[in-house]
Structure formats: structure tokens, C-alpha cells
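Risk mitigation, structural track. In case the binding assays with NAP fail to produce interpretable data, a predicted complex structure has been prepared as a fallback.
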Amino acid sequence: MTYVPAGNRYERMEYRRCGASGLKLPRISLGLWHSFGDDRSYESKALICRTAFDHGITHFDLANNYGPPPGASESAFGEILRRDFRGYRDELVVSSKAGYDMWPGPYGEWGSRKYLIASCDQSLKRLGLDYVDIFYSHRFDPDTPLEETMGALDHIVRSGRALYVGISSYNSRRTRQAAEILKELGTPLVIHQPAYNILNRWVDRDGLKDTLAELGLGCIAFSPLAQGMLTLKYLKGIPPGSRASEDRFLAREKITPDLGERIAGLNEIAKSRGQSLAQMAIAWVLRDGVTSALIGASRPEQVADSCGALENTLFTEAELASIDALKPAHDETLWASSSEGV
Ligand code: NAP
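Fallback model:
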């Protein structure tokens, strides 16, 4: 059956301008890092994307290496664009990235012009698109001059492969340098994508949100649920089919009794706010200086639950202090900044 998007989708979502740019992003965006590989059916992937669009999520975030295998998520989303979202391309913001390990040899990762431009072309082919809306440098490369990496992003825009460019996981110092180089080249940097959630505060330690505000950049915070740890799913062990059960990007050893106690405490605060823990965690990320929370989902019901976060995004000082009291001494994360210093 032909998919027809919900008629009230734009009434269900808020949109915020991305920094000083003209681009508006939904307060909640969907990432396709997990659950979009060749190990899942077309129908399960399409249902997640349809549910997202029905809730007003217009922004879908990808990268060259999302799968498994690498590239599979872009191919899957390309098929969804052709079969389900045909006719809606101009209502969507599609992003991709290059920076992590993608193909063998010296030209398949990091930040060279050689890699970024070739990878962008491969992504466009898999997605079946002429251009992506946002193309990112996925991580800072200490061995390539930043001028070269930013020059490649500038070329990607000038050659029509992308409309806007962004960077991911750069610290404040490197973000300032990247923004300055791109400004001189005439292609403004519009967005930064860092990891940020209640259990991972590197952004606050770095002062990144102040830097982004000063530079007029938008901020899209990834893994707002700490890959699922900020939900109730791990309160009684590791359920089959969960991300921790795969023991790849979320190691089983991260699911400790100490985490369980913190989650139970956070859940009490969420309940007093009339929210699920996932909703409170997303609302917390959105509270100041963040344009959009970039969620993941393995089922459509999770997308619907997460969108409910927007019903209560205000926190009292007392609630914020109680949440802070439950954060671990060390960040629970795979990611901090990919540049030196934080
Ligand atoms: P996340 O929102 O922190 O975690 C998503 C996981 O949480 C889901 O797969 C699901 O786990 C669980 N979940 C989601 N909603 C739930 C709900 N309402 N109730 C209970 N459980 C729920 O985000 P993420 O998947 O780690 O990352 C999101 C996106 O950020 C990625 O897809 C990608 O686009 C981006 N990202 C970017 C980078 C970068 O370097 N730039 C790195 C990582 C991610 P189960 O699968 O266990 O059900």
C-alpha cells in the first residue's frame, strides 16, 4: 500500500533555526546508525521512518559507515526515499558524513580531500540522491591540515553535492579554527554534532555550547539516551535484542549495578515530571543551546515515546540538581571530542 504521511505532522513538532543559518531543524531528529543494516527487514526500517515523519521528524541522519555492513543504512534509506518518501524530498533534510574507517587502504578514513570527496560520491550513489542537505566531517583528523579538510567540505558544497556543511565531535578550539577557515572560503559552517546526554557531559566541560552560540552554529546532540542506557530496558539485566546484547558499540560490561541504581533514581525524577525516563533524558538535552536531539530507535513505538519529550521540556533548578547528583563521576561513553584536550 502506498504510504501517505499524517496530515497533521507539522503541528506535532517544533522547528528551530540551526544557529544563524536559514535552515530549520526539528527538535527531534532520527539517526540511522543502528537498526538499518542488512540484518533487518525493509518493512521494519520503513515503519520506523514513516512513524518519524508522521510525528514531524523531517531530519534523517546517516553516515557512510552505518550498517552493518558499512553503507547498508544509506542503501536502505535510499530505498525508503524511493518507495515511501517519493514526492517528499523537499520536505526532508538528509545528512551524511565521512571520517571513520570505510574502505581498505590509506584513502578510506580520516579527513583528506581524497577520502571526503570520494566518500560523498559513494554516499550519494547509495542514497540515490543528487545532493545531501548536510555533509559532515565525522571526526577531527590530527594528521591532515584542517585547511584541507575544510577545503574539501567547501568543494562538496560548491560542486552541488551538499547544501550545508557540519563537523562532528570537534572540541571548541578546533571548531573555532574550522569555522574561521570555512568563513574565509565563503561556505559557512552551520552545525556541530557532539555526543551529549545526562551521562556524558564533555560538551559542558569543553564549553562547546557557548562556543557554538558565539559562532552562530547549530547543535545537534547525538545519543541523547546514551545508546539506550537512559531508559528502563537495562533495569533487570540485558534483554535479548537490545543494543547491549550485541556487545559491539554498547559493551555489556557498561550495564552495572551502579548504573542500575542511577537509572532507578533518574526514573523517579522522570515520574514526578509525568514523563518516561527516555522523555526526560531527551528534554534534558534540549534544555538550552541545543537545536535538535538526534535519537536512534529499533522500533516505531520508541520514536513515538521519544517525541513525547516535547510535552515537558522545562526543568526547575531543584530537578536539575537532583539529576546532577545522579550522574556518574566519569562519562559513560564511547565518544568525547575527537580532537585533543577534552
Ligand atoms: P540514542 O537515542 O541514545 O539510543 C537509541 C537506542 O535507545 C535505541 O536503539 C533503543 O535501544 C533505545 N531507545 C530509543 N528510544 C527509546 C525509548 N523511547 N524507550 C526505550 N528505549 C529506547 O541514540 P543512538 O542510536 O546512540 O544515536 C542516535 C544517532 O546519533 C545515530 O543514529 C547517529 O545518527 C548519531 N550518532 C552520531 C555519531 C557521531 O560520531 N557523529 C555517533 C553515534 C551516533 P535498543 O536498540 O536496545 O532497543
